[in-house]
Design goal:
This protein folds into two domains: 176 residues, Isopropylmalate Dehydrogenase; 160 residues, Isopropylmalate Dehydrogenase (3-Layer(aba) Sandwich), CATH 3.40.718. The chain is of the alpha/beta class and 341 residues long. 50% of the residues lie in helices and 17% in strands. A hairpin with a 4-residue loop joins strand 10 and strand 11.
């Protein structure tokens, strides 16, 4: 049985010039994938023709017309109330109606969260959805949530994030018992505010594989499989890390362009520099999941290129393949709802 995914074809900084080629490329790599491109039908057909897919690929391509687009700077409240036929809204509606297993969008993050939560609702026992993404580490990657969907989350909400993150990693990464770490200002038990300490107490009373507190640099060491934090801290950590990568790139370019000798050195180590750039490329890890909804929604970076957006489609496919929403719902029922009875 094939997995069908809706793609908000008009969303993001580049729209159909990226989303359509990325979708066609994903279809070539995944034989049991079908894609519903949502947006202006005429524009989508034209872009598909430019991608020159063969008939086997075209048989797995579907188009759903949508007359509106959510702008990247549009207020979530306006997108929710006024853009009911936007490509984003229609793509999410297809998940609600059971026409597709998941939705992928590179559009406005706030609008995507607001519309997804309104249309799909949250899993019973989940107060707030959370954004989870993969972050590169020394020997692979780890997962961090929440990365900005919520600020000032309660200990109970952070517990939900831990459960959801654990289940997602367990089933999509085939990790039998993912380790869970709480982001804190130190590893010692005495450190942290009351919210963090109360969250730790809650997690310890579950069957989760709780590691303990982790610090910011532990994220990149890969100390645990899942790092749990409030969206305020998580988003700052994410943007700070992106800034550091940009700073490293700036100083390397500056150092290697200083004179003829350094330019020659740059040419010699060019293959190494390309490998480092590839390992740190955010596009390689593109595809953040909105966990906790009654349906799968994957957020791509707004400025994603073709390969990067394709990675987000792969993420949606992986989560659909293992029915991640059902797995999270079952675990929330076991760890939260039953314990509260």
């Amino acid at each position: 049985m094939s997995i069908r995914v809706s793609v908000d074809a008009s969303g993001g900084d580049h729209g159909i010039s990226v989303t359509i080629p990325a979708g066609i490329s994903a279809l070539k790599e995944i034989s049991d994938l079908e894609i519903v491109f949502v947006g202006n039908e005429v524009s989508i057909k034209s872009q598909i023709d430019k991608s020159s897919p063969n008939n086997k690929i075209l048989n797995r391509v579907h188009i759903q017309h949508a007359s509106e687009i959510v702008a990247m700077d549009e207020l979530p409240s306006q997108a929710l109330r006024r853009k009911k036929d936007s490509s984003m809204r229609v793509a999410i509606n297809l998940v609600k109606e059971g026409e597709v297993s998941a939705c992928v969008s590179a559009g406005n993050t706030g609008a995507l969260m607001a519309i997804s939560r309104f249309v799909l609702k949250t899993i019973q026992g989940v107060d707030r959805p959370a954004i989870m993404a993969r972050i590169p580490t020394y020997d692979g990657h780890t997962h961090v949530l929440d990365l900005g969907a919520n600020v000032d989350s309660s200990p109970e909400a952070l517990l939900e994030f831990a459960i959801m993150g654990s289940e997602a990693v367990k089933h999509t990464e085939n990790v039998k018992r993912p380790t869970i770490g709480l982001l804190n200002v130190g590893e010692e038990e005495i450190k942290g505010n009351e919210k963090i300490k109360n969250t730790a107490s809650l997690i310890k009373n579950t069957n989760l594989n709780y590691y303990g507190y982790v610090e910011g640099d532990d994220i990149y060491k890969g100390v645990v499989d899942v790092v749990v934090c409030d969206g305020f801290e998580g988003n700052i950590a994410l943007k700070a890390s992106e800034g550091v990568v940009g700073l490293m790139s700036f100083f390397l370019k500056k150092a290697f362009s200083k004179n003829l000798l350094t330019k020659l050195g740059a040419f010699i180590v060019l293959p190494i520099l390309k490998k480092v750039k590839s390992d740190l490329d955010p596009g390689k890890y593109n595809g953040a999941t909105l966990l906790g909804l009654k349906g799968i929604v994957v957020k791509s970076h707004g400025g994603a290129g073709v390969d990067s957006f394709k990675n987000a489609i792969h993420e949606a496919y992986r989560e659909s393949k293992v029915s991640i929403t059902d797995k999270i719902s079952e675990q929330i029922t076991k760890e939260v709802l039953q314990n509260n009875e």
